[in-house]
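Supplementary Text 2. Reproducibility record for the structural model of the 84-residue chain.

All settings were left at their defaults, and a single model was retained for analysis rather than an ensemble. We include the record here because the model underlies the residue-level annotations in Supplementary Table 4.
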Amino acid sequence: MKRPGALVLLALIILVGCVSVSADMKGRGCDEIYVVGEGESLHTISDKCGDPFIVERNPHINDPDDVFPGLVIHIIPSTDHTKL
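Retained model, structure tokens:
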């Protein structure tokens, strides 16, 4: 066997790097133009992007329950991800 400790160390470095990138992406927020994805609702998008006024900013949404994949909406991304 050739240095099993080196393989374990390499695996840990890769794992920590992946977790760090994932955390950075999570706090990134959303772009101003947002395309609704499969399984998303205005509530989940609002939580994800920190914008509680999605319906007010998008007059083309007549029914907040009628959101479908591919729908384009305007978001004002929140820079503060703390809950009020």
